[in-house]
Target: AAA+ ATPase domain-containing protein
Amino acid sequence: MIISDDQLMNLVVQSGLVHEKNVQELIVFAKAAEMSLFDAIVEKNNIPEENLGHLIANYIQIPFISLSKTSIQEDVFHLLPERISRKYKAIAFYRDNKEIRLALADPSNHNLALHLAKKTNQPVMVYLALERDINNAAQLYRKELQIIIDQLIGQSSLGMDTFTSLDQAPIAKIVDTLIDYAYQNKASDIHIEPQEKYSLIRFRIDGILHDVLNLPKNFHDRIITRIKVASKLRTDEHQSAQDGKMRLRLEEEMLDIRVSIIPIADGEKSVLRLLSSKSRKFTLSDLGMNEKDLKKIQDAFHKSYGMILSTGPTGSGKSTSIYAILKIINTREKNITTIEDPVEYRLKGVNQIQVNTKTNLTFAAGLRSILRQDPNVIFVGEIRDVETAGIAVNAALTGHLVLSTLHTNDAATTLPRLTDMKVEPFLVSSTVNVIVAQRLIRKICDNCRISYLLSEFELNKFFSPEVVKKHFMFTEENHEIRIYKGSGCKLCHNTGYAGRIGIFEVLEVSPNIKKLIVEKANSDVIIKVAIQEGMTTMLDDGIEKIAQGSTTIEEVLRVTKVQL
Model:
């Protein structure tokens, strides 16, 4: 850290970002969670990292640069070798006739700036940058995966039959390289699919599958065998599905990987789910929740009882949102216990139980046991059946804060869904505090973002005139507005998108909503009243993010399934 913890704490208190009475609580939280004070302030107070970066930069009197919002000149970028860049967390990002601009996670490293100035015969201007920004920008160093794999395959001129050990090159290195490359490119899954003439490797990045590599067909079975051995699965079983786990030590962390293998027509297909703990270091603000909705969530989780429900389809970020809440309320005074299927991410200080149907440890059975463990907060991975719903509602009614997820399309349909699960309407109205419906949308890549003008007439092709008038400002003289998109670059793999944020619909169960629940009103009536009371729908939230330049029209339409 470039400034001491005491200096940082004084800074955030003086700036009003943290109240003085919360200082000791933050210190205890950071120590218990084994994280830096910087990370603790971000986690606990939903303060964007960039805000803290600006604060520290002003204090040490060095300019701050957000690399994620900066177009980096690639020829300038390579002024620093990759080894030096990664070792010292440094990125050269700009050069003109007057100076070179160098971003450092620790600007006190004067030697690197002096070395670069001597090497180029130009003055070097030092900037403070977030370490996460620097690590993301370092992707420009990476070679194309196909080139790396071809080099591994070509390392031996002896032919594949010579390699008798799975630890010999190229098999072991190919598997490790695939995983490392997927991790560095923020892929959530690796698909290894046998085709008729080759083996296809695909990565799921920001929710979209991308073809990234073709391997010779004779490598496929050996790669699958390597994965089976690392996952402790049967190598002689080829006709049935197998599930397992493996771990790989990367430079950044020890990565847990969930493995699924199934037989298909051309061989065995494997899907590797990368369970990166670092990828879950998000606050609700990082996830794209606006201040109004954030206030509703905070009011709900500061209560000691009731239910907070997160809804949406698989892959919509429900668990990420719940984990963000759990990290905020996780203190030594609370006993937080979860029942999950599976436990994908470990939270320090939280008791996490893995569902195991073989031993009859179901959601319902586990929830019953948790209630005998004197919990304050309970997270039920998913409410799937009548029994789990009944126990969860009763737990919320008897003085526990219960968080859970449901598979519904929007916030309002969650309420009739609970009633369908045989939960009495008066119990639903008494226990549910807030419901969060969400989807994940891809963000425009900041490195290649460009703008263009779109007319009111063209916007009306995508959205209703009422929606357009609500979110976009047109005048009699000006019938165009500025919209953004990504042109495609190396950092975003020419997709125009990098990273994801959520679009949210937060329904607070107000007295009027409670009355409608007891009267068994349908979801359309509940939505109408909720909107009248100020609820922002997911579509509205998505359009706001279009207007802000965070995402594109096509992306919002894709995830909200709006028909053109």
